[in-house]
Specification:
single chain; binds adenosine-5'-triphosphate; Heat Shock Protein 90; Helix Hairpins; binds magnesium ion; about 25% strand; alpha+beta; Beta-Lactamase
C-alpha cells in the first residue's frame, strides 16, 4: 500500500467504499476511520474517531509497534460496552512515517453462536448422564414394584395396610414413568402418540399426589373445561408435565396456599391451554430466563435436580407446544402450557 497523497479526495472516495470497518492509524493514534468503523464502535461520524488513542477502541493496545497480521482482540464501543473483533493490520510507509491500516471484523455474533453450540453440546452430555442415572434407578424400581405386588396379594382387600401399599405401588409406578422420561431426555421425539384426555390426566395425577405433604394443606381450585377434545400425545409424558408443575407449585408455596389448575380450549378449537398457578412467591425476575435450563435449581443441594422444568419444556416442545410463564398481579407464579390438539403443532 502506498501513502495516500495527503489523503486527497480520490483517496477519501475510495476509502469510503471499503465496506468493512477500517481505520488508518499511527502506532498509537487514529488518523482516520470509515463510516462502518465509526458505526461499529458507536460513533455518529467517522470524524468523531480521528485523533483518538487506539487504546480507546481496542484493549489491550500495545504501547510500542502494533502487531502486524490478524488477531482477535477486545473492541470497546463509545458507550463502554465491549465486542469481540478480529483485526488485520498492515503497515505502509507514508513519507518518513510508518502508518498502519487495520480492517476490523465483528465476531461477537460468531462467539455467541459458538457459545450456544457449546451449551447445546453440554445439554446433550447432561441428557446422556441423566439417561444413565435413570437407567440405574429404573431397575431397582422394578424390584420394588415386584415385591410390593407380592405382598399386596397376601393382604386383606380393603385393609389399611393394603391401601397404603397400593399407594406405594402407584408412586413407584410414577417414579418409573419419570425415570423412563429421563431415559428419553436428550433423545429426539418418540412418536408413541395416542388420543389423551388432559382433564383425566390432571385428575389422575392429582388424586395420586393430593396426600403428599406438599399439597395436603393446599387449597386446589380445579377449573377443567367441559368437553375438552382429546389431544394426540404421549400420555406418560403428559402426566410428567402435570406432575412437575404441581410439585413445583407445592414446593414454591412450602405446602401452604392456593393452586389453580385450569384447562381451556382455544376459540378455534386447535389448541388446549393447561394453566397451573400458585400463590407462592413467584419467580424472581433475574432467574426467569434460566428456569428451563437443565440442572438450574434454587433449591438446597439434595432437594432439587433442576431437571423438572427442562424435561417439561422438552416434552411440550416435542408435542409442538409452548410454555409461558408469568407472575400474575395477585402474586404467585403462573405456568401456561399450550398444546396443539393435533399433537404436532400442525
Ligand atoms: N411455581 C414456581 N414458583 C416459583 N419458582 C419456581 C416455580 N417453579 C419453578 N421455579 C423455579 O425454577 C427452578 C427450576 O425448576 P425445576 O422444576 O426445573 O427444578 P427444581 O424444582 O429446582 O428441581 P426438581 O424439579 O429436579 O426437583 C426452581 O428451582 C425454582 O427456582
Ligand atoms: Mg421441579
Amino acid at each position: 500500500m502506498r501513502c495516500p497523497p495527503s489523503f486527497g479526495s480520490n483517496f477519501l472516495e475510495m476509502w469510503e467504499k471499503i465496506s468493512q470497518p477500517a481505520i488508518i492509524h499511527t502506532a498509537s493514534h487514529a488518523i482516520m476511520a470509515n463510516s462502518p468503523f465509526a458505526s461499529l464502535f458507536g460513533y455518529v461520524r467517522p470524524e468523531d474517531v480521528h485523533d483518538r488513542s487506539m487504546g480507546e477502541f481496542f484493549s489491550p493496545w500495545p504501547s510500542s509497534t502494533p502487531k502486524v497480521g490478524t488477531r482477535t482482540i477486545l473492541g470497546r464501543r463509545k458507550n463502554g460496552t465491549s465486542l469481540d473483533v478480529e483485526i488485520t493490520t498492515v503497515p505502509f510507509p507514508c513519507g518518513d512515517r510508518l502508518l498502519f491500516q487495520s480492517v476490523v471484523r465483528d465476531i461477537s455474533q460468531l462467539r455467541s453462536w459458538e457459545g450456544r453450540l457449546l451449551q447445546s453440546e453440554r445439554i446433550t452430555a447432561m441428557g446422556r448422564l441423566a439417561g444413565e442415572i435413570a437407567h440405574e434407578i429404573n431397575n431397582p424400581l422394578g424390584g420394588i414394584l415386584l415385591y410390593a405386588n407380592l405382598i399386596k396379594d397376601d393382604l386383606m382387600p380393603g385393609s389399611t395396610a393394603r391401601m397404603n401399599l397400593e399407594k406405594i405401588i402407584k408412586l413407584a409406578t410414577r417414579c418409573r414413568i419419570i425415570a423412563k422420561g429421563l431415559l428419553n431426555f436428550g433423545r429426539s421425539s418418540s412418536r408413541a402418540y395416542s388420543p389423551v384426555d388432559l382433564n383425566r390426566v390432571i385428575v389422575e395425577i392429582f388424586s395420586m399426589i393430593e396426600d403428599h405433604r406438599l399439597l395436603k394443606d393446599v387449597e386446589v381450585d380445579m377449573r377443567l373445561a367441559e368437553e375438552l377434545p382429546h389431544i394426540m400425545a404421549d400420555k406418560g409424558q403428559m402426566e410428567q408435565v402435570v406432575l412437575n408443575l404441581l410439585i413445583n407449585a407445592g414446593e414454591a408455596m412450602g405446602g401452604q396456599g392456593r393452586v389453580l389448575i385450569e384447562t381451556r380450549l382455544s376459540p378455534d378449537g386447535k389448541e388446549i391451554k393447561v394453566v397451573v398457578q400458585d400463590s407462592g412467591p413467584g419467580i424472581p425476575k433475574e432467574i426467569m430466563s434460566r428456569i428451563f435450563e437443565p440442572f438450574f435449581t434454587t433449591k438446597q443441594p439434595g432437594h432439587g435436580t433442576g431437571l423438572g422444568l427442562s424435561i417439561t419444556l422438552g416434552i411440550v416442545q416435542r408435542h409442538g407446544g409452548k410454555i409461558d410463564i408469568s407472575n400474575p398481579a395477585g402474586g404467585g407464579a403462573r405456568f401456561e402450557v399450550t398444546l396443539p390438539v393435533s399433537g404436532s403443532g400442525g
